[in-house]
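Re: that backbone. Tokens:
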């Protein structure tokens, strides 16, 4: 902007003009993993290019008519020039200014708020995170790191943190804390027993319940299809819940999300428990790879999860699961399968090794 307004000729003005366009595009598309940011950036770039083309034609016309681009020379010669030429030049420069300022049909400016708003929110979120980091780090440090890594893997799958609604939290503080709960099919009993006794025992879990409960008279002749357990309510789980869930006023319930802060704790252990809960081996044709069921997460969240896999050296792609619902699954690249097996095999339960080899 300084270059644009302080230059002594139209050439310097044009350089500043182009610089503003480039900076605007980079700011709008700063969060390049967001589809909305990509579209807003492309819209700004294309509509600005229309203005740049008109402005460039105006500069060529000025040089052709005046033989110079200096302001002082041009302004002194204007009274003696052909009015039609001056009118054409004026319209070309005006057209460039209209497109640059998003007026009269050029609509890129409202969409430019995509980058500005997200940058502002990110700064505010960073401030909030910095304020709460001391308490968060203290709470998370009260459990072994591997336990936290396992919890992350479980939450990426079927594990959940349960907490009453915001209104009830305010009314009944004694039940305001969150607790962890896990429900899986009957064939996963050994794995559930492993989680119960090795991972969540420190949180005083309930016993493992069978469903239907065949000990009850009304369920006597039924077959057990699921097992479940839950932990006690703790401040730790409430803290983790605040990272992994957001309150949806329309649905009147908490919705699970993927917190950006989990990149500090995501590891091969997390990946192993994620695969055990929500991964399956795809052996169709020549694929021979693993798919992670991420339908419950948004596309942006799936892309973020791909960056976490990339930190472990694992390449992946997004596979559309349902076009109508805009859901995706993460497909591990076949070339990364040897590395993935090497990383997660030591942490996999023996009952789930088939998810790595398809046997």
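Recovered sequence:
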């Amino acid at each position: 902007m300084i270059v644009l307004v302080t230059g002594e000729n139209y050439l310097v003005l044009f350089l500043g003009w182009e610089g503003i366009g480039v900076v605007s595009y980079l700011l709008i598309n700063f969060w390049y993993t967001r589809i909305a940011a990509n579209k807003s950036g492309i819209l700004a770039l294309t509509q600005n290019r229309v203005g740049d083309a008109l402005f460039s034609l105006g500069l060529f016309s000025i040089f052709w008519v005046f033989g110079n681009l200096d302001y002082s020379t041009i302004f002194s010669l204007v009274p003696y020039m052909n009015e039609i030429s001056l009118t054409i030049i004026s319209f070309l420069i005006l057209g460039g200014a209209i497109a640059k300022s998003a007026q009269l049909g050029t609509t890129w400016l409202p969409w430019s708020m995509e980058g500005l708003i997200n940058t502002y929110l990110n700064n505010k979120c960073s401030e909030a995170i910095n304020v709460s980091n001391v308490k968060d780090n203290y709470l998370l440090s009260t459990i072994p790191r591997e336990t936290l890594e396992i919890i992350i893997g479980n939450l990426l799958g079927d594990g959940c943190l349960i907490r009453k609604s915001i209104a009830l939290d305010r009314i009944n503080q004694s039940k305001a804390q969150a607790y962890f709960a896990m429900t899986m099919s009957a064939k996963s009993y050994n794995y559930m027993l492993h989680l119960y006794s090795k991972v969540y025992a420190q949180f005083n879990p309930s016993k493992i319940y069978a469903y239907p409960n065949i000990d009850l008279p009304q369920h006597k002749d039924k077959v057990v299809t699921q097992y479940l357990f839950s932990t006690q309510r703790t401040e730790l789980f409430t803290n983790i819940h605040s990272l992994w869930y957001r309150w949806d006023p329309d649905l009147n319930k908490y919705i699970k999300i993927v917190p950006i802060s989990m990149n500090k704790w995501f590891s091969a252990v997390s990946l192993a428990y994620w695969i055990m809960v929500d991964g399956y081996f795809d052996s169709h044709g020549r694929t021979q790879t693993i798919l992670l069921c991420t339908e419950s997460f948004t596309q942006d969240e799936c892309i973020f999860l791909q960056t976490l896999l990339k930190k472990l050296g694992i390449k992946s792609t997004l596979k559309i699961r349902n076009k109508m619902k805009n859901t995706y699954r993460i497909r591990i690249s076949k070339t990364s399968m040897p590395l993935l097996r090497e990383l997660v095999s030591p942490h996999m339960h023996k009952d789930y090794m088939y998810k790595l080899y398809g046997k």
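Residues 120-135, 167-171 have pLDDT under 50 and may be disordered. The longest helix spans residues 35-66.
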